[in-house]
């Protein structure tokens, strides 16, 4: 992701960010810079577990450094709203090893 290529079209939309340390942070993209540092509003972290449902921890306004971002994805808000996160089970993501 050099220079935030393609992020312009996602401003003011809900996105999902997977960080290098395996976190999944969801929020509304408010801005980014040439180093792909991003600003998310109304954000929360989704914590996955094989024993409990998906925990959602509210973060609010949140900045993620570009060098800690592995994947940025667009979210289908209608599909996402229909998911029952309390019933989902998954292994937590492992950190990215370079």
From TrEMBL:
<dbReference type="Pfam" id="PF01423">
    <property type="entry name" value="LSM"/>
</dbReference>
<keyword id="KW-0747">Spliceosome</keyword>
<comment type="function">
    <text>Plays role in pre-mRNA splicing as component of the U4/U6-U5 tri-snRNP complex that is involved in spliceosome assembly, and as component of the precatalytic spliceosome (spliceosome B complex). The heptameric LSM2-8 complex binds specifically to the 3'-terminal U-tract of U6 snRNA.</text>
</comment>
<dbReference type="GO" id="GO:0005688">
    <property type="term" value="C:U6 snRNP"/>
</dbReference>
<keyword id="KW-0687">Ribonucleoprotein</keyword>
<dbReference type="InterPro" id="IPR034103">
    <property type="entry name" value="Lsm8"/>
</dbReference>
<dbReference type="InterPro" id="IPR044642">
    <property type="entry name" value="PTHR15588"/>
</dbReference>
<dbReference type="GO" id="GO:0046540">
    <property type="term" value="C:U4/U6 x U5 tri-snRNP complex"/>
</dbReference>
<protein>
    <recommendedName>
        <fullName>U6 snRNA-associated Sm-like protein LSm8</fullName>
    </recommendedName>
</protein>
<feature type="domain" description="Sm">
    <location>
        <begin position="2"/>
        <end position="78"/>
    </location>
</feature>
<keyword id="KW-0508">mRNA splicing</keyword>
<comment type="subunit">
    <text>LSm subunits form a heteromer with a doughnut shape.</text>
</comment>
<dbReference type="GO" id="GO:0003729">
    <property type="term" value="F:mRNA binding"/>
</dbReference>
<keyword id="KW-0507">mRNA processing</keyword>
<keyword id="KW-0539">Nucleus</keyword>
<dbReference type="InterPro" id="IPR001163">
    <property type="entry name" value="Sm_dom_euk/arc"/>
</dbReference>
<comment type="similarity">
    <text>Belongs to the snRNP Sm proteins family.</text>
</comment>
<dbReference type="InterPro" id="IPR047575">
    <property type="entry name" value="Sm"/>
</dbReference>
<dbReference type="InterPro" id="IPR010920">
    <property type="entry name" value="LSM_dom_sf"/>
</dbReference>
<keyword id="KW-0694">RNA-binding</keyword>
<dbReference type="GO" id="GO:0000398">
    <property type="term" value="P:mRNA splicing, via spliceosome"/>
</dbReference>
<dbReference type="GO" id="GO:0071011">
    <property type="term" value="C:precatalytic spliceosome"/>
</dbReference>
